[in-house]
Amino acid sequence: MVSPGRRFGSYLLLMIATMLFAVGCGPTTHVVALREYESGRPAVAEETLFPLLQKTHKNDILYLWDMGMFRFAQGNYMMANEAWLKSDELAGIEPGALDTGLELFTTDADKRFIGDPVEYSMAFLYVGLGYYVMGDYENATVAFRKSLEWDYSGNPERQGDMVITNMMLAECYSRTGDHDQAVVGYRRALQSAPELIPAYIGIYRELDKMGDNIQEKTYREELAALISQEYAKATDRNPQGVLVVVMSGPAPKIEAQGEVFRKRKELASSIDRWQIECSGHRSAVATSLADELITHLKDQGGELGQAVRKVTQATVAEAMQEVPILGLFAPSTEADLRYWTTLPGRIYAGYIPLEPGLHSIRATAYDENGVSLENYRQTWHYIPVHEGENTVLVIISHKNLQELM
Known about the structure:
CATH superfamily of the domain at 4-239 and 299-343: Tetratricopeptide repeat domain
CATH architecture of the domain at 4-239 and 299-343: Alpha Horseshoe
Number of helices: 16
CATH class of the domain at 4-239 and 299-343: Mainly Alpha
Radius of gyration: 23 Å
Strand order of the largest sheet: 6-7-1-10
Helix content: 40-55%
Strand content: 15-25%
Largest sheet: 4 strands, mixed
Low-confidence stretches: 4-25, 289-301
Shape: globular
CATH topology of the domain at 4-239 and 299-343: Serine Threonine Protein Phosphatase 5, Tetratricopeptide repeat
Mean pLDDT: 76
């Protein structure tokens, strides 16, 4: 057994070595790219990261995921999808594969980044959004379904319960005329987010097309209890509108303390809610389960995945110190601690029913005290809304968003 004094000395030497290394080395190209992205300069982030993808590297999958996000934030959905689909091809693993856990703790200098289930689930959500905005609803449907396949959990009731993914899958079915499946998707979204107004509107719009007046009336009554009378009248007059998906990222940092995980409040997002406005109508946007994927420990992804690995790594190392024979059987303590840092902390969805034509849409963020955050405001002009169809807008919030307008 290693004495406490000797163990403390080892820890001290490790800390000193780490500090000297940090002082002597500047930030890596990848870190610089991430800082540019988080500061609201995704084009500069893409340009910075691009050289790293010109040669084969064990971080190729990780770099491709971040590159996809940089392009997505610029509205370059096709190139973003190419990056994410290539990362999926390099990974070579199928949804539900359980053999990746051991690989995370296997020492191999040349191994590729494996990733966590939630990271793949989110990647396919973005792929689906890109295809949807480009009007390719068939491929969007496939991507959203893959996103749900990756979103598995030990609790069967929580498997595939990502709110925005189910919401957008329903939108795809609506576009392709599969009204039954559209209603299923909207209902699935509402199971996890009962106040997701866009899902209620989608349900009774689909039921109206199917001629199911009884269920439509029920959902209209539930919707009326959530929104103002004026807004409810607007939905009656206009079966089309604008659906805004807002990604607020990156996720709050996670601290690991033994087996307890908690968010670091000082690093949490200052955004409490978003509001969408157009032509006098306002829509408070609902939050999806993207944030709760972290809180509920269901998928061990992103920042939480890093914390889980660190705690497991420390536990294995401690056990091997106490009982050396375990080293013959236990996985390596040099765990793969990389993770996709551009995952958003929350995803919101808001909907405004509008008359066909061109409109100006404004999204405003508020803090927990109800004070608007000017640096996160964004406005779109000349947004077309066609009769009987929804227009989807996707934004990713950044600190200096105001400067980009």
